[in-house]
Amino acid sequence: MGSLVSFLLVIIALSLQTNGQPLVPAMFVFGDSVVDAGNNNHLYTLIKANFPPYGRDFVNHKPTGRFCDGKLASDFTAENLGFTSYPPAYLSKEANGKNLLIGANFGSAGSGYYEYTAKLYNAISLNQQLKYYKEYQNKVVRIAAANKANFTSIISDAIYLVGAGSSDFLQNYYIDPLLYKAYTPNQFSDILMHSYATFIQHLYALGARRIGVTTLPPLGCLPAAITIFGSHSNKCVDKLNKNAISFNNKLNATSQSLQNGLSGLKLVVLDIYQPLHDLVTKPAENGFAEARRACCGTGLVETAILCNADSVGTCANASEYVFWDGFHPSEAANQILANDLLSSGLSLIS
Question: Which residues, by range, are in coiled-coil regions (predicted)?
Answer without folding.
Answer: none
